[in-house]
Write a structure and sequence with these properties.
With about 120 residues, the protein is an alpha+beta fold. The protein has helices at about 1-50, 65-75, 95-100; strands at about 55-60, 80-85, 110-120.
Amino acid sequence: LFRSRVAGGEGTLQEADEQEERREQQGRDKRRALQDGAALRVNRAEERLKNQRTVFVGNLPISFTKGMLRALFRGYGAIESVRFRSVARAEPDLSRKVAAIQRKVHPNRKSLHAYVVFLQQSD
């Protein structure tokens, strides 16, 4: 009888420990979610500001380079970054990034697009 009570008591202690651990984990998860939510709000705000400093440039010849774009837009302010988009790969097993860097574009493709991001917003 004593052994069964002790065994039963150990089970309840173990259950209590497990419950406490679950509550602590839920608290940690909740704090992490709040921090992530705050980070998302900050990231969205930063993204909106960055979008205001971004210019879309379309129908560029395939031969256009980042240096050429920087030289073209340098007169409008300091440039943070230049990104090429809409690069159709010549080889399907080649990643889009590598295709853009190596300029291995589909032979039927005659143009591409770019985004120029300035350091500061200008009027």
